From TrEMBL, chain B:
<dbReference type="GO" id="GO:0006865">
    <property type="term" value="P:amino acid transport"/>
</dbReference>
<dbReference type="Pfam" id="PF00571">
    <property type="entry name" value="CBS"/>
</dbReference>
<keyword id="KW-0472">Membrane</keyword>
<dbReference type="InterPro" id="IPR046342">
    <property type="entry name" value="CBS_dom_sf"/>
</dbReference>
<keyword id="KW-0129">CBS domain</keyword>
<dbReference type="GO" id="GO:0005886">
    <property type="term" value="C:plasma membrane"/>
</dbReference>
<dbReference type="InterPro" id="IPR017871">
    <property type="entry name" value="ABC_transporter-like_CS"/>
</dbReference>
<keyword id="KW-0813">Transport</keyword>
<dbReference type="InterPro" id="IPR005892">
    <property type="entry name" value="Gly-betaine_transp_ATP-bd"/>
</dbReference>
<dbReference type="InterPro" id="IPR003593">
    <property type="entry name" value="AAA+_ATPase"/>
</dbReference>
<feature type="domain" description="ABC transporter">
    <location>
        <begin position="4"/>
        <end position="264"/>
    </location>
</feature>
<dbReference type="GO" id="GO:0016887">
    <property type="term" value="F:ATP hydrolysis activity"/>
</dbReference>
<keyword id="KW-0547">Nucleotide-binding</keyword>
<feature type="domain" description="CBS">
    <location>
        <begin position="278"/>
        <end position="334"/>
    </location>
</feature>
<comment type="subunit">
    <text>The complex is probably composed of two ATP-binding proteins, two transmembrane proteins and a solute-binding protein.</text>
</comment>
<dbReference type="InterPro" id="IPR051921">
    <property type="entry name" value="ABC_osmolyte_uptake_ATP-bind"/>
</dbReference>
<dbReference type="GO" id="GO:0006970">
    <property type="term" value="P:response to osmotic stress"/>
</dbReference>
Amino acid sequence: MIPKLPLDEWVETIVDVLDDKLGFLFDLISAGIGGTVDLFHFILTGLPFWVLLIVFTLLAYRAGKLSIALFTFIGLLLIQNLGYWEHSMQTLALVLTAGLISVVIGIPVGIWCARKDAVQNVITPMLDFMQTMPAFVYLIPAIFFFGLGQVPGVIASVIFAMPPTIRLTNLGIRQVPSDLIEAADSFGSTYFQKLFKVQLPIAKTTMMAGINQSIMLALSMVVIASMIGAKGLGADVYRAVTQIKIGEGFEAGLAIVIIAILLDRITQSVGKRKNA
Amino acid sequence: MPKIQVENLTKIFGRQPQRALQLLEQGRSKQEILKETGLTVGVNQANFEVHAGEIFVIMGLSGSGKSTLVRLLNRLIEPTSGRVLIDGQDIVRMNTEQLQEVRRKKLGMVFQKFALFPHRTVLDNAAYGLEVQNVPKAEREKKAQESLALVGLAGWEKSYPDQLSGGMQQRVGLARALANEPDVLLMDEAFSALDPLIRKDMQDELLELQSSMQKTIIFITHDLDEALKIGDRIALMKDGAVVQVGSPEEILTNPANEYVERFVEDVDRSKILSAEHVMKRAETITLDRGPRVALQLMRDRGVSTLYVVDKRKMLLGVLTADAVNEAKQEGKTLEDVLRKEVPTVGPQTLLNDLFDLVAFSDVPVAVVEEQGKLLGVIVKGAVLGGLAGKVNQETGLPTDEGQVKEQ
């Protein structure tokens, strides 16, 4: 019999070494992410409820139909009525931060993948790994490096949520018709001119679908993130589960659904909007 | 110096293309090389020159390598070996910046499927080439507007490509290429995606534009009629190799090999050959001669009409046998019986436009230069001969044969 590979020990060793050597880096990341969450949180809870109600309703109206604006208006009133407004905004701050980081990292990586097949060949299996590894597992190193609270929650969300942005940015750029690339090249475009004037604008719809997916996945992580101390609706659901409070769990879950639909419709419409 | 000079230009697709180069030099065929090495020969040792201001057509069936060849000229596809000299500079050896500069300043390209940017307005499409050169917005929009006006699209600046018909989209493509004011236009099957009527219009318009612009145009097509219509010279390609380069007439009347011959056999010659290709030497006389001399000349030459010219060989009129006979019997001069209304055509008149005139004229139709100098005559049989492809044997191309015989 072959003795068991000490894979667990290896991973722990790597994590130890990383924590030892790169601790300052993690502190820096932690401060950055924490600051972003706090900023969103400050804005979202600092403004009175009715101001945000109007802003979100207008956003939804601009995004598309009257029906979505109406849904937003009623949905947010319901959340307020149930008493989940404060927690909803905490969750939104977390999701927006995770979404923002996914975009800021994911789009350049996606562009890089589209430029070089070799990069794509390395990144794709990593993305598969990130998406299929049970999300709970990310919580362990996240706690180890970043402690308890919002930050490890965001980190775990980003790891889980970023792949669609990378994949669809890559796909969107690769799907730009080859004759348009030839046209751009034939007029003497540089790499960045071609990227910003032709490839990204044409890939925009596909990329927005990826960003939309990333945000939805980040939202789906809030309950898991609450297990390591992230505040918000996720914590409410988690508590309701552990205490078997069906009614409370339903209310918090419903608030998550309302926010999910709202985010989905608004981000989708950004991609679909006509070129003009 | 030719505008563009292509020397031994070869493109081989696949890994380690060098393996096939030697085989090509040994004269092995595309099929043999594919079998032996698994490599595909795109373009095989092409050699030709394109002169400034001409429309140079590269023609061949699909898969003959013509689209690859045109992309080698601006390095959208990297050549495997050979040289492409544009104004004497080898673009194959240029680095990225130099290549971009040449593409920006000297080469404009028009694509088969238009390749317009769907997210940009017609104006922004036309201004793209200037935009990448960082030309200020006001200036590039002015130039783009002029360019759009040139192709008849003034007023459509704010539209998006998907709001235009195919013909109009390709006009935008042309305007985009012209806005840069390049010396050379590369047109890759530019009209092939258009329906036949629009296509004919575009061909006419291109020729009209060309008469005022005098660009060097390299035009790719698989359509022989199109090639013959717009080409000043034509290069015929087969299996990646250039089989023949020549004027439309040369290709038609003097095919280099069986392949070209087969390619051109279905051509409507009446639309290609012109009066000068089928005209015969004219039997002429000057007015200072008498009727007896004229009759003798007719008898000697076996003709029933004589063309009257002055010392400078300007056509004055025609004498029929009957008229000369009358003059002889009634003691008139040749001038008295000279018929001055003679059907005439220019040397470039197409056979297609000659049929009526030749069929209903009782004397051979005279071919005259613009100033009135007689070049030759067209008899009914010569037109039929020309249609049958017997230009050389029967009447000769515009060589000495076609000239007016010295008196």
